[in-house]
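Record 1 of the preview.
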Amino acid sequence: MNIVLDTNVLVSALWSPGKKASEILNAVFSRKFTACYDHRILEEYSLVLHYRKFPFSEWEINAVLEPLIKSGISVIADPLPDVPFTDESDRKFYEVAKFCGAILITGNQKHYPDESDIMAMPDFFRKYL
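->
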């Protein structure tokens, strides 16, 4: 099953090891799910995880990003300009999810259209893990 991880899933996984977000990430690393991404998503992951407000070390960030990239699928998604977004920075996750036929997992469901393949972390965890 293909999934797209909103950046807040990675932040949560690093912030709270052993919780739902880290279990989802571990399922990706063990290839139970395949993470889809594009260059825009990878850029955001790196940028956000390096914010000064987060205490993540370089090795922690690499321990998440490297296996995610190696086990995932890099795509060039079709633009979907007709779908309205209040925060345009969320559009890339939606476009990649639609392109890959993936479930989009987020901690900010209100930022996305109300669709069944856009799920909050706890809902995805309950249904698939």
